[in-house]
Every structure is written in C-alpha cells, then in structure tokens.
Design brief:
heterodimer; A: about 325 residues; alpha/beta; 13 strands; B: alpha+beta; eight-stranded antiparallel beta sheet; 8 strands; about 35% helix; about 30% strand; globular
C-alpha cells in the first residue's frame, strides 16, 4: 500500500493509468438495476471491517482499499476491482467525487476513502485529469484531509469557491431559486457521491441525499421543516438526479447525536462503507444504523426527539420517485 | 450663570456616560482568543474567523439554527495546537443574553462532567463547553490522549480570563 504522499506523487504522473477505456460501463450497470427494479428490490451493500481503525485510532489505508474492493465486488458481482469499476463508471468522462467536509476535521469524508476510489478509477482507465474531487470550498476539502489542486493533468481537487455557481436558478417543488455548483452542471459527466454518515440536528440523518446540500449556493434556505421536502425536492432537480448516480458512503466514523458538527463525545466507529445506486434505500439503511446505535447507548429514537428523517419517505413517494424506502423492497447485503 | 452650570453638568454627565459606554464596549469587544504561548503549550494556528448570525450557516450549516433560535449574535472561531501535536478548535458564540448561552449549554450535555469555568461549564474527554454572561465557549480537540482534558481546561481558563 502506498502512503498518501506516494499516492499523490504517482497520480500526478498518471502512472497508475491502466487498461483501455470502456465505452460506457455505466450502461450495463443500469441494465442490471433495471432488473432489480423489475424484481422490486434495490440493492444496498454494507461492508464492514472491525479492524479498520488501528490501535492509535487512525484508519488503516490498506484496509480501507480492501473494504472498498469488497463492497464494490459484492455490489457488481465482479471480484476483480478493475472489472467491477468498469461496470460503474464510463472511462472517457469526467467523474466527480462529491465529498462532505461540512462538519470539519474529525467528521468529514476520509481522505483514505477518496484516495482508494481515485486509485481504482485510474486502474480502471479513468485519466487523472478526468477525476475531480469537490465540495463546497477549500475549507471543507481540507477538513477531509485533501489539498486543493487545479492542475488539469492531475487529479483535480477544488470547491465551488473556485468554480462558482450558476446564475440561472433551478427549481423543483419547494427547492426554488437553487443556484447549482458549476462543477456539477458543467464539469462533471457523472458524480460519485461520497457522503459521511451523521446525525443531523434538523434533518435527523444526513447521508446520501442530504449531501446534495453541498452543491447549492445557499443550502440554509432548504432547511425548513426538518429539510422536508427540501432534500427530496433538491434531489429531483434533473441534473442532480441524473448525474449523481452512485454512492460510496463513508460510515467508517460517525456521530449518532449532536451532528452534523464534530462532537467527539457522540462519535462512534461503525467501520463500514454503504454502497449502492438507490439514494433513498441507502438513506433508509443509514438511518437504521443510527437508530441501532442510539438504542445501544440508551438514547431515544430520532422520532422520540422530534426529528425523524421524514424526507426519506418523501423522496420515495410517487411525486418524487427517487427510490424505495420499504425494507421489503431493499435487498440489503451485509459483508 | 445658572444655565452655564446646567450646561457644564450636562456635558460632564454625557462624557461620563460615553466613557462608561466605551469601557463597557471595550470589555465586550475584547479579543477572547489567547495569542500563541499566552496559555502554556498552546499556539494559535489560524486567523480568527467571525460570522454574524445571518451567515453562521456558512460555518456550521445544519447546526446554525439551534444557535440562531437561542439568539446568537455572532460566532468567532480559531484553530489551536497544543505542544505542536494536539489540534483543537475554539468557538466563541456571543449570544444576545445569558439565557441564550444557558440554553445551548444545557442541550445534550447531561452526561458531561461539570467543571468550574465561567458561570457554568462541562467537560468531556475531548471537549470543554462553558458559558460566561452572554458568551458560550466550546473547545474541541481532534485526538484523545491522557493529557487532552487537562490541556483543554488550561486553554478554557485562558479564554475565560479574557471574557
């Protein structure tokens, strides 16, 4: 396993670039999912490694990569990581990786996960310059342990403070006057969503769909009524719905109360990745993980404290149709 | 003559009132962030950033609303490092009144250890929270070591002395 420094050095030269470019691996993946929809189930993989954190409390980067491989292999049915990734992303397009550094250092998408995804993308044939790691701003990226870079020959890492927002607002339902990040609208062809699992003071839970608040200029305007229907409406805006296709959720570290900021007294280590395409099923799964942890430590449910994540059911309703929240229609695979 | 005395008295009163106001303002506007080495072992490692209530979401989006509903006027924040190893963030929330600070402090800290700081304070293994008048102070460390609680308390006392 390369150290972070070695990894960045290597990606700068593109030395990890391997293989030929797939025409559109995503297409075959979507075909598979169409079958899943026909069967009435959305697939969600939860991959765990209890030894993910070393005795010093730090993430073991090698184990993170192995955990990612296990999650992706389980989801795609391909043991070879390169083959598996070719099923998920198109090789000749710009792939965005939307992180979440809002909570600050300690409760942001881990750099180890970002690096692992970047490594596999390159091995699958995506050019370094076609990988764009992004978030709201430099501060959020730094909170993830990432360094801003705009060099187009390397993996790019920058935020909307660099690229800006659209002047023309988008809208769906209650999400009106939404100015979207140009990184999403103009630069990325497809976005891999890399949220971090957290309790949320207003929304109840923040994970896959809620991470899209980081693609708008004024997310605070979507917080009314527990972010419901704000979260669902935002995810229905066509460019969000269609470009953000796959989630690799960071549940390696989480807060089960007091979020979305860093509250070390409420921190826990699920040591897991949650992956899938159905953002509603992913959020439902993530919510249940938070509830189980709260029950374990004797805390009331989110419903009990008046902030259940109602936006999840809203996202599943016919008006939104973003996915399924019925456990009977979620094919949960735990490995 | 009488009118002149009245005018002098009025002028003196105004100056005194202005002085009192100035002193009061100065007290409230003093920088609560200890400079590097002002508290043994602690260095201030970033500029202080300040957010008025309406922009607080830019710093703590999602958390901001609870502070706004408790009457926050502004929030200032800076990063610190202890003995060049332990990283921490210091937030000073200036609330509209002491009741607002009390409301935040009493939210979700019933399992914390009480500490003698300001009007009231609590401590966890990696954080210290206290209130003093309208101020609500939170210091969070990003690592838990045997020395973390003591180091955080020292910094908290340094902040308290400047409020």
């Amino acid at each position: 396993m390369k150290s972070r420094r070695e990894f960045i050095k290597t990606t700068a030269t593109g030395a990890l670039l391997l293989g030929s470019q797939s025409k559109l691996g995503l297409a075959s993946m979507l075909d598979q999912n169409a079958q899943h929809v026909a069967n009435g189930k959305s697939r969600v993989v939860v991959a765990r490694d209890a030894a993910l954190h070393g005795q010093d409390g730090q993430l073991d980067e090698k184990r993170v990569l192995a955990l990612l491989d296990r999650a992706i292999a389980t989801y795609t049915g391909h043991d070879n990581p390169v083959t598996a990734w070719k099923q998920i992303v198109p090789m000749d397009k710009v792939i965005g990786l939307k992180t979440n550094g809002l909570g600050g250092k300690g409760i942001s998408t881990h750099a180890a996960l970002v690096m692992a995804v970047c490594e596999r993308l390159q091995q699958a044939g995506v050019k370094p310059g076609n990988i764009l790691v992004w978030d709201r701003n430099a501060r959020d990226l730094q909170a993830c342990g990432l360094t801003v870079s705009t060099d187009s020959s390397r993996i790019r890492v920058y935020g909307s403070d660099v690229a800006g927002f659209e002047d023309q607002p988008a809208a769906f339902g209650s999400a009106v006057n939404v100015k979207l990040a140009k990184i999403l609208t103009r630069e990325c062809d497809m976005v891999l969503n890399l949220p971090i699992l957290k309790d949320h003071e207003m929304a109840g839970v923040t994970f896959s769909m809620k991470n899209m608040y980081g693609v708008v200029q004024r997310p605070n305007e979507l917080h009314a009524a527990g972010c419901n229907p704000g979260v669902a409406d935002l995810n229905c805006i066509p460019v969000v719905r269609h470009k953000v296709r796959f989630t690799i959720g960071d549940a390696m570290t989480s807060v089960y109360d007091g979020g979305p900021g860093f509250h070390p007294e409420r921190l826990w280590q699920p040591n897991a990745l949650i992956v899938g395409e159905d953002r509603v099923a992913l959020d439902h799964t993530a919510w249940q993980m938070i509830e189980r942890k709260r029950a374990e430590v004797g805390m009331p449910t989110l419903e009990g404290v008046g902030r259940p994540p109602r936006y999840i059911a809203t996202a599943a309703d016919p008006a939104h149709g973003l996915g399924v929240n019925d456990p009977k229609r979620i094919h949960l695979i735990e490995v | 003559m009488f009118q002149s005395k009245i005018m002098s008295l009025a002028t003196a009163t105004l100056v005194m009132a202005a002085a009192v106001t100035f002193i009061g303002c100065k007290k409230h506007q003093s920088d609560p962030f200890p400079a590097s080495a002002a508290v043994a072992g602690w260095d201030k490692t970033s500029e202080t950033r300040a957010f008025p209530s309406k922009d607080l979401w830019q710093y703590i989006d999602g958390d901001a609303e609870q502070y706004v509903s408790a009457g926050v006027v502004s929030t200032s924040t800076s990063d610190y490092k202890f003995q060049n190893q332990l990283e921490a963030t210091l937030d000073v929330h200036t609330m509209g009144d002491a009741a607002g600070a009390r409301k935040i402090l009493e939210t979700g800290t019933s399992d914390a250890k009480p500490v003698q700081l300001g009007d009231a304070g609590v401590q966890y293994a990696q954080s210290v929270i206290f209130r003093k008048g309208p101020y609500l102070v939170r210091i969070v460390a990003y690592e838990s070591t045997p020395g973390t609680p003591q180091a955080l308390l020292a910094l908290a006392h340094g902040v308290e002395a400047k409020l």
